Amino acid sequence: MNNLKFNQEKPIDLIAIGRLAIDLNANEINRPMEETITFTKYVGGSPANIAIGTAVLGHKAGFIGRVADDQFGRFIVSYLEEKDIDTSSIVIDQSGAKTGLAFTEIKSPTDCSILMYRENAVDLKLEPKDIKEEYIKQAKAILISGTALAQSPSREAVFLALDFARKHDVVVFFDIDYRPYTWKSTDETSVYYNLAAEKCDVIIGTREEFDMMESLTNPGNDNDFVTAKKWFDYNAKIVVIKHGKEGSISYTKEGESFKGRSFPAKVVKTFGAGDSYASAFIYGLMEGWNVDQSMEFGGASASIVISRHSCSDAMPTAEEVKTYIEKCKKEEGQSV
Ligand SMILES: Nc1ncnc2c1ncn2[C@@H]1O[C@H](COP(=O)(O)OP(=O)(O)OP(=O)(O)O)[C@@H](O)[C@H]1O
Ligand SMILES: O=C(O)C[C@@H](O)[C@H](O)C(=O)CO
């Protein structure tokens, strides 16, 4: 059991809101992008990855976002539909805005970076009129992703979605998803992230992302408990701080804390860990599992995805994750 209350009468498990983009992952890995010749195209964008992860795990996902009226936009919508994700609230944008491109550089399994082409990005053209109250009302939970707060009108659209979620008994997950290249200043980032976080039930971020959020209000703090405690005075029930290979730590409003382990991984690339962790963690919570069981599921999913070339295309089924956990525990001599 956990401390979240999902309304089981709602037909959609999780609606993700925000970035639908394209990943172009280098095929010639373990070298700088200057030496890369070919790339493989995948659907990308953190909230898109999380929605895809949710669907592959076996839950019903939906999406609110905008795509460009071009080949990339059609590829994205088609891929989501193949995963049985509801695309009825994806708007085909006619402004000429372009799909965000993430060129990924895999210099080594531990030295990866992303070259972002996000000029006039279509995902940030999301408008309040794209947010349908009747659609959000159908979800047990929504996921907002911090990058969608970076510019208007996307920013206002997200805050409207938050208001509808709070009005209709919809649990709100906030993946901080801080991508500096999308913001003008850290002060602006910190202010808007804090305003959004006040309305959320579960906040997930890395230590560095929380440092950014606290840069104005509690500069220099690196204490995870101090970070988490602040949000329980608002709507938060669970706060998760991710620590890469070291795993994760969570705190609950009731005063519990849990350490999430990481799992062995034959790392191909590091990115994708956060999105796969989030989708599997949310899956566990929606299944009614304990917070620590859900964290374990998230950690195992992450170790699978970083061992594969893609993010979205690499998302595992619930059976794959469970089997991997059992395999690791057996090899570690633990009772399964
Ligand atoms: N090298 C690794 N080996 C095993 N598990 C890992 C590794 N890196 C990350 N993880 C798992 O993934 C979770 C999330 O990773 P991380 O803390 O890097 O989040 P993130 O920075 O949001 O990820 P991303 O790189 O996708 O942005 C960790 O808590 C851990 O469980
Ligand atoms: O979220 C992004 O814009 C980048 C993603 O598309 C990419 O898959 C990644 O970095 C996932 O963590």
TrEMBL record:
<protein>
    <recommendedName>
        <fullName>5-dehydro-2-deoxygluconokinase</fullName>
        <ecNumber>2.7.1.92</ecNumber>
    </recommendedName>
</protein>
<comment type="similarity">
    <text>Belongs to the carbohydrate kinase PfkB family.</text>
</comment>
<dbReference type="GO" id="GO:0005524">
    <property type="term" value="F:ATP binding"/>
</dbReference>
<dbReference type="InterPro" id="IPR050306">
    <property type="entry name" value="PfkB_Carbo_kinase"/>
</dbReference>
<keyword id="KW-0418">Kinase</keyword>
<dbReference type="InterPro" id="IPR030830">
    <property type="entry name" value="Myo_inos_IolC"/>
</dbReference>
<dbReference type="GO" id="GO:0047590">
    <property type="term" value="F:5-dehydro-2-deoxygluconokinase activity"/>
</dbReference>
<dbReference type="InterPro" id="IPR023314">
    <property type="entry name" value="Myo_inos_IolC-like_sf"/>
</dbReference>
<dbReference type="InterPro" id="IPR029056">
    <property type="entry name" value="Ribokinase-like"/>
</dbReference>
<comment type="pathway">
    <text>Polyol metabolism; myo-inositol degradation into acetyl-CoA; acetyl-CoA from myo-inositol: step 5/7.</text>
</comment>
<keyword id="KW-0067">ATP-binding</keyword>
<dbReference type="InterPro" id="IPR011611">
    <property type="entry name" value="PfkB_dom"/>
</dbReference>
<feature type="domain" description="Carbohydrate kinase PfkB">
    <location>
        <begin position="14"/>
        <end position="317"/>
    </location>
</feature>
<keyword id="KW-0808">Transferase</keyword>
<dbReference type="Pfam" id="PF00294">
    <property type="entry name" value="PfkB"/>
</dbReference>
<comment type="function">
    <text>Catalyzes the phosphorylation of 5-dehydro-2-deoxy-D-gluconate (2-deoxy-5-keto-D-gluconate or DKG) to 6-phospho-5-dehydro-2-deoxy-D-gluconate (DKGP).</text>
</comment>
<dbReference type="InterPro" id="IPR022841">
    <property type="entry name" value="DKG_kinase_firmi"/>
</dbReference>
<dbReference type="InterPro" id="IPR002173">
    <property type="entry name" value="Carboh/pur_kinase_PfkB_CS"/>
</dbReference>
<keyword id="KW-0547">Nucleotide-binding</keyword>
<dbReference type="GO" id="GO:0019310">
    <property type="term" value="P:inositol catabolic process"/>
</dbReference>
